[in-house]
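request received
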Amino acid sequence: MRDNLYLQIAAVMAPLSLIAVGGAPAIFAPMQHEVVDVRQWLTGREFVEMFAVAKFAPGPGAMISTLIGYKVAGWIGALVSTLALFLPSSLLCMAVARAWDKHRGKPWHKAVEEGLSPIAAGLVFAGILALFRLVDSGVLSWIVAVVVAGVMTWRAKIHPFSLLGIGIVIFLAVAFARKLV
Amino acid sequence: MNTEKTTAAVGLHQIFLAFCNIGAFSFGGGISGLIHREIVHNKKWLSDTEMLAGLALAQVVPGANVANTCVYVGQRLRGVPGAAAALLGLLCIPFFATVFVYLMWDQLSAIPMMDSVVDGVAAAAVGLNLRLAMVGAQRSFPKIFPMLVMAATIVAVGVLRWPIIPVMAVLAPLSIAYAWPRKSADA
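response:
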């Protein structure tokens, strides 16, 4: 019966892995539908809480799959769920990356890389806009992001921990200031 | 800019540890910036161009973009074992940390001003991405056409929120065609 549950988890997560075009945000809705409405493994509230936890904890947002697996079937469930969500797409990506690497050194290969680089930069910018739409803390978030990017430009050796610390200090300072006023 | 780097064999354990580090510090979606910083800037395992091409590829292939980026980097460095080491490294700390946070969630969310801490971390993580975007922008800076392509990508995906695949299907061929005759100019 237990094995059956692991299989069920894998059966939910593995297809989601392959339809996540554009990344994890693309599958939160179908994932919620599957685990809340169809299988009824968790309530809508629990799903939203797990979404918040996955956003708060380190790692990709898709780690919500780990939590769903854990809730349904403990640590092994968490492992099965994580692997089922990450492995299929990773194998596909692996195949594409290998095919791509085979042609390294050819002139057109370099042209393709050069051509993709402004698009990648644009996608990173677009991702920043999407993230800020999500967090909704407005001007302050922009200030922190610009300060951090600036510090990285001038103090190249700084540890990521210090960079995250800059964000915490600025946000806490503003929160304290608001309380005092 | 060094775009034609020959990569000396990087140890699998080095790949694993580098991505453990990335996984442990990846908060609030700023992971691409962190990967670029660690792999290109600190370790100098890949060039900026290779990294940016990998990021574009990672977004076109389905799956979590960060995981795909790891697979791309790992595969580039050490083939299949390298990709496995990178992915395992990325996920191992978050795997336990996420469940730990879930179990402690009630206590954690009761800490005063926790919201500010979380928002601060998320904004700083976005700063890492901003730095990466700046590196990408600098690469195309003096050339008008790549800058137009970048601007078009931002507007289409970031502002109009069009899906990535059709946008790339239009922009990528144009941008690659532009890069074609310049293939030796940058070496």
